[in-house]
Amino acid sequence: MLRPLLLAAMDVPGRPCRVPTSLYWTRLACSHDILCRNVTIGRKSYLAGGMSDRIAVLKAANPQPMYLLARARVAAFAAGRYRSPGFLLRSLAGVALHGARAVLGGARRQGS
Predict the structure, then answer these.
(1) Does some domain include residue 42?
(2) Which own/partner contact pairs does 35-38 have at CB distance under 8 Å and 24+ positions apart?
(3) What pLDDT digit, counting tens, does each position of 27-59 carry?
(4) Is residue 40 situated within a structural domain?
């Protein structure tokens, strides 16, 4: 039962290099109640020069998943799943910023 939900949440067109995990959780939270537990199920190791070290560059180079995340958060607010007006404003700014980056990046690729 969980597998089809996760696969649907993970559908991101264009196969970008980086997709924020929060996009998957936001998509799930829009239609299902998510219970979070303070239990460690894994531990990450951060490497020098890894994705976290280059996150700003990766977000700028792959704006579409960030745009999708911001748009999903706005939709979740409209549906009553999120309630923070400050979070809504931040998400609207993300729609504008990452949407513009996606459009400009797409125009640059087509012009090349």
Answers:
(1) no
(2) none
(3) 888 888 878 789 988 888 888 988 889 999 988
(4) no
Q: How far apart are CA 81 and CA 68, in angstroms?
A: 17
Asked if residue 34 lies in contact with residue 16, where contact means CB atoms within 8 angstroms, the answer is: no
Give the domain range for residue 12.
Answer: 2-35+50-111
Q: How many CB atoms lie within 10 A of CB 107?
A: 10
- Tens-digit pLDDT profile for residues 62-81: 899 999 999 999 999 999 99
Assigned domain for 44 exists: no
Alpha-carbon gap, residue 17 to 54, rounded angstroms? 13
- The model carries a pTM of 0.80
Q: Tell me if 18 sits within 8 A of 65, measured CB to CB.
A: yes
Query: What residue type is 99 in one-letter code?
Result: G
Work out how many domains the chain is built from and give that number.
1
Q: Is 81 domain-assigned?
A: yes
Residue type, 57: V
